[in-house]
Specification:
It is built from eight helices and five strands, in the order αβαββαβαβαααα.
Length: 241
């Protein structure tokens, strides 16, 4: 069978506020982001595991309130003021701790809003500067929790839509019953399916998904040992059909 060459084209992910999936897991985060005027000390830390929508929620808030966007890993030196406020993505991976400390102090002095995004609560970030660690501990923090079934369903549909892939609802339901229950794994599975579909020159079906994901899912402890569909109590025990 002739296979097509799958080119690594950029994915145009949508961060539109209308695409935010409301869920009990992000309810607290959405509430805090909607009212920056009530943030203690004018700053907030948003944290949670990868793929749960931290960046999406923050991008939507930044667009609404006019906040500038900064990358923590590229944050260096003294920054100019930003009257409308600032967002620091990957703030827990900041390259220049002194730059983040200066930004926090500048925002506090000028009454500017500051949103910090990381994987864990700021009190757990590996910070060496005592003054910075102290300010991070004093920062109000809100987490995004484990996703519900409804959120996972919405995320899977969004990941397919971001790649302009049309996948039948029954195929998506089949995938959700078998994939690990976290957003990062859903995103990885969609990327693998996209690559496989491009290579085979066809659409994403259950047989293609079974073939494309078998080895990867075995690495997660999910094996093809049953022909009975349905979700089992633990993702590590879910059969792959």
């Amino acid at each position: 069978m002739m296979r097509q060459l799958a080119l690594p084209l950029p994915i145009a992910a949508s961060f539109d506020a209308r695409d935010v999936i409301a869920d009990s897991s992000n309810e607290a985060a959405r509430s805090w982001l909607a009212k920056p005027a009530v943030w203690p000390l004018g700053r907030l830390a948003l944290f949670g595991e990868a793929g749960l929508g931290k960046t999406h929620l923050a991008r939507a808030a930044a667009a609404r309130f006019g906040w500038r966007w900064l990358d923590g890993m590229g944050l260096r030196g003294l920054l100019p003021p930003a009257p409308q406020g600032s967002v620091v993505d990957d703030a827990d991976c900041v390259a220049d701790e002194a730059a983040l400390l200066h930004l926090i102090n500048l925002c506090a002095e000028r009454g500017e809003t500051l949103l910090l995004i990381g994987r864990e609560a700021p009190a757990r970030w590996p910070i060496r500067l005592p003054d910075l660690a102290s300010r991070l501990r004093a920062t109000q923090a809100v987490s995004i929790g484990a996703p519900s079934d409804a959120l996972l369903c919405g995320l899977l549909a969004k990941f397919f839509a971001d790649r302009q892939l049309r996948v039948e609802p029954e195929v998506q339901a089949w995938l959700l019953a078998r994939l690990p229950r976290n957003a990062a794994s859903l995103a990885e599975a969609v990327a693998r399916l996209d690559h496989a579909a491009l290579g085979m020159g066809g659409r994403i079906t259950r047989p293609l998904a079974r073939l494309a994901l078998a080895e990867w899912l075995e690495g997660h402890g999910i094996y093809d040992d049953s022909e009975t569909p349905g979700r089992l109590p633990s993702p590590s025990l879910v059969p792959l059909l």
